[in-house]
Design brief:
heterodimer, A: alpha+beta, 5-stranded antiparallel beta sheet, B: 6-stranded antiparallel beta sheet, 53% helix, transport (chain B), endocytosis (chain B), protein transport (chain B)
Amino acid sequence: MIKFVLMVNRQGQTRLSRYYHSVELSRRAALEADVVRYCLSRKKDQCSFVEYKDFKLVYRQYAALYIVVGITDSENELSIYELVHNFVEVLDKYFSRVSELDIMFNLDRVHIILDEIIQNGHIVETNKSRILAPLTTIDKMVDS
Amino acid sequence: MPAVSKGDGMRGLAVFISDIRNCKSKEAEIKRINKELANIRSKFKGDKALDGYSKKKYVCKLLFIFLLGHDIDFGHMEAVNLLSSNKYTEKQIGYLFISVLVNSNSELIRLINNAIKNDLSSRNPTFMCLALHCIANVGSREMAEAFASEIPRILVAGDTMDSVKQSAALCLLRLYKTSPDLVLMGEWTSRVVHLLNDQHMGVVTAAISLITCLSQKNPDEFKTCVSLAVSRLSRIVSSASTDLQDYTYYFVPAPWLSCKLLRLLQCYPPPEDGAVKGRLVECLETILNKAQEPPKSKKVQHSNAKNAILFEAISLIIHYDSEPNLLVRACNQLGQFLQHRETNLRYLALESMCTLASSEFSHEAVKTHIETVINALKTERDVSVRQRAADLLYAMCDRSNAKQIVAEMLSYLETADYSIREEMVLKVAILAEKYAVDYSWYVDTILNLIRIAGDYVSEEVWYRVIQIVINRDDVQGYAAKTVFEALQAPACHENMVKVGGYILGEFGNLIAGDPRSSPLVQFNLLHSKFHLCSVPTRALLLSAYIKFINLFPETKATIQEVLRCDSQIRNSDVELQQRAVEYLKLSSIASTDVLATVLEEMPPFPERESSILAKLKKKKGPGAVSVTELDDSKREAGELNGGADRGPDTAAMAASNASTPSPSADLLGIRSAAPVGAAQTNAGSLLVDVFSDSGPAAPSAAVNDDGFLRDLEQPTETSDSLLVEGSGDSDSAPPSEDPAPPLSEADELLNKFVCKNNGVLFENQLLQIGIKSEYRQNLGRMYLFYGNKTSVQFASFSTTVSCPGELQAQLNVQSKPVEPLVEGGAQIQQVLNIECITDFCDAPLLNIKFRYGGALQNLTLKLPVTINKFFQPTEMSSSDFFQRWKQLSQPQQEAQKIFKANHSMDTEVLKAKLLGLGTALLDNIDPNPENYVCAGVIQTKGQQIGCLLRLEPNAQAQMYRLTLRCSKDTVSKRLCELLAQQF
C-alpha cells in the first residue's frame, strides 16, 4: 500500500503531506527530513527508488518540487512512479501550468485532487476527468 | 499575491500564506504562526458566532500550520461543525481536517459518527463519498461498530453511484483491516468478487485492493476471483489502446489496473482450470510480446507504464514457477533491461532477476548474464543499484561460477560503500564456504576478506574459518603457511592476528620444518603483534603460547620468560593475569605427557550450520529473497565438514552405546566431542584444579573463552538411551482377543503400510483383514477383505470408517455398508473411496463389530491412509534438487531425525522402501553415493506440496539421519515421523 505522499521543494520545505497510516507529529518531522536528505541529494542518473527503513520511496522531480511516495513492497514501483506523473498532470490541467505557489495557496484543492486519486493508501481513480469532477462541480457552484 | 488562489479564494488565508513565505527566518515564521494561532483561538472562543466561510478559512489556516510541522490542539470542534454544513467546500474542509488531525478521540468520534450517518443517508453522492472517505481515514473501532454492517450494502447495491462504490470499497478495506471481526463478508463474498466484472474501470480499480486483501486472508472463499481477474486482464491486454479511452495512459490501456490484477493473481497458485490457465498464459505472452514491439510513443511515460505491467507479469511468472518457457522469456527480457539506459529499469531488472535466480527453470538462464551483472557492480553510479547487483551475484552463484563471483565481490569490497560492507563480507564468507571444493581456496578467500575488510569481519566469520580448518586435516598445513605469510605484513588486522594465533597454536608444527618459519620465528612473529592487540586477542595469544610450549619444547624457556614478565603476570586485566599465572605454572610443573594431553590438538567441531547465515539473515530481515537458509549450507557444507567428520562420527557412535546423549541432540555432530572429553577427565585431578577457575569447558580447552567451545556441549547427559527411539519392533501385531478401540498396536499396523499398499492389515484367531489400495493424484481407492477364519458365521457384521477430529476436514472417506453376515470360512469385500482435501497427520479409524457365538466383538484399527500415499514422484537433476532444497529454506519447513536402524540396511531393501513411499528415488544427486535422495509432490485437493527427502545411512553405526523439506511444515514433520519407523 501507499504509506504517504509528500511534496517538498528544493529548500526542503514541505508543501503537501498526506499520511495513510498514523504517524506522530514529531516523527513526521524526522521522516520528512530523512526523505529530503535521501531524495534531494540524488543525481539525475540515479534511480528513482530508494530503500528506506522497511519501505521504499518513489520520487519524481518537477522543477524545484519533489514528489515522494512511500510504498510497501505490495506496490509496483514503476506504476507508482507514473501515478505521480498522472497526479501532476491533473494538477497541471486544473491550475493550467501548476506551480509551487498554486499548491501552497490552494492546499484544500490539491487535497481534494489527491483524495480522488488515492484513498486510504490505495489507488481509487486514474481517469483525469473523473478525478477533477468534484472540483469542477464546486467551481461551477461558486461561479453561479 | 492572493490572486493565485483559485475559486472562492479565501483572502485571509492567502495573506497569511504570503506572510509565511516572506518570513526571513525560522524565528519570524514561528512568531507569525503563534500570532495567527492566537488570532484563530480568540475567534473560535469569541462571543460572535462564526459563519461557515470564516470557520472554513480558519480551519484551512490550521491545516496549513499543521503542514508546517506545528501541533494543533484546538479547532476540532469547529471542524466537526463544518461537517453539518450543506456547502460542499465547507464540509470537505471539515472532513479533511478530521482525516488529517483526528485520532481516536472518542467524544469527538461520536459527533463525527452522527455527521457521517447523516451524509450516508443523504443520497447525495458527493457527501456520501466524503463520509466514506472519512471512515476510511480514521477507521476507529467505534466507527467500525457503527458502520461495518452498512458499508457492504452500499458497496454492492445496484443503485449506488460508481464514485460512491469506489469509496465504499476502500472504506470497507480499512474497516476489515482494523476490525476484521466486525466485517462479516459471508453473504457479500460473491457480489464483492463480481465487482471485478463491473463495467466501470474506476470501480474495479478501487475494488481490487479490497479483493486482494480479502483473498490473502481467506484464499478459499475468494478463489473465484482468479478466473474473473484473468478474463478482465485478458480484455484489457488484448484491447486496442483506443478502446478504454479514459483509462488509457500514454497509449497503454489501464496500466494501474493491470498491475493490480497481476498482483491479485499472485495470491493464488496457477489456475487449475485449463481454459483459464490457457487464457492467462496467453495474456502473459502478449505482455512479453508487447515489450518487443516498437513503442507507440517516444514519451517515457509510455514505456514506464508498459514496463510496470511487464515487471508485474514477470513477478507472476516467477511466482508460478511452473512455465519454463515463460520463465526463460522473462529472464531474457530482464537481461535486456540490465543494459537499458534507464537506471530505474536496470534497478528493477536486477531486483527481479534475483528472485528468478532461485527458480530451477531459469537459474541457468540467469547465469548467462553474469558478465553484465559484474559490470553493473563495478560501474553503476548508484549505490542502491550496485547493492542489487551484489544481491543478484549472490543469488546466481553456484559451484560453476563461485570462484569468479567471489573474486569479483572481493575486489568490489575494496571500494564498496561502508553501508553495505558488512553484508558483503558475510555473503563472500558464505559463498566461499558453500562452494568450496578446494579448501586452500576457501582459506585464501577468508584471509583476503580479513585483509581487505577486517573491520567488517564479524566474529562469526573468523570462528567459522577456524572450525573448518580444525575439521579438515588436509588444509591445516596450508592454512598455517598462509596465515604465517599474512602475518608478515607490517600492519595486520586484529582479526588476522586472532586467526593466526589460533591456527599456529594448533598447527604451527606443520610448517616448523622450514627454517624460515621455525618455532621461534613463529612465536616472535605472533608476539610482535601482541602489544597492539586488545585484551581478548592477547588472551587468545597467551593460549597459543602455551600450546607452543607443548608443540615445540625448545620454545619453552622463551615463552616462560614472556609469561613471567610483569606486564603479563601482574597485568591489571584479571583474565590476562590469570592466564599468565596458570600457564606459567602449568608449563613448569606438568610432565610432558600431561602437557601433551591437556594441550592436545582441538577435537573436530561438530558438523553444524554456519552461524554466518543466521547473521546475514538477521541483517537482512526475513523477507530478503537472496538469503538462503541456514540448513542449506549445512547440507551443502556437508561436503566440507562431512568428509572430515566421518571418522570421528563413527567412533563417537561406537562410544555412544556406552554413554549416550539425549536423543534430540544432533548426534552426528556433537558426539565427536565425547571421547575427547572422556579422555580428558582421566588426565588427572591436577589439571582440573589448574583450570577450574579459568572456565567451565573441557580441560584441553585452554582457549575456551574465545568463543569456540561454547558451541561444544558437555557430554554429561548419559541417562537417555538412543534405543528409546528404535524400540518399535518390526514383527508386530500379535493377535489380540480384547477388542479395545483402538488397538494398542494400531500404530504399528499403520507403519507396516507406509511403504506398501497391499497386504494383511490385521489378523487374529477369528478374523483376517486384507487390504489392497491404489492412489492417483489426491484420490485413492482401498479394498478391504474381511475373512472369517472360523467355521462359524459372524452375525451383525458392521464396519464404520471415521475421521476423528481435525481429520474430518482433511480427508474424505466414503464407504459402502457391508453384508451383515459373514459365513464361516468366507470372505467379504468392502470398497472405500478416499479423497485428500488437505494434508493430514492422523489416520482414519476403522471400527468392526460383529457377534461371534453370541459375544460382541468390537475392534478398532487405524486405516493405513498416510499422507505419503498421495505422492507423485518428481524426477530432477542435481542442480534442480539443490535449488529446490534451497527454496524450502524456512527452519520450520525442515524436519530431521537421527535414529537407529531397525531393519536391514541393505541397499536394495532401502531402495524398495523409498520407492514404495511414492517419491522418485534420485540418483547422482548427493555427493555422497551412500546417501539416498528422493523428491515428490503430494497432491491434495487444495494444493500441491513439494517434498524433498534425504536419508543418510551410517552402516558402521547402524544409524540413519533423515531430513525432510516440504513446502508445508506440518507435512515435513509428519513424513519424518512416519518414515523414521520404516528403516
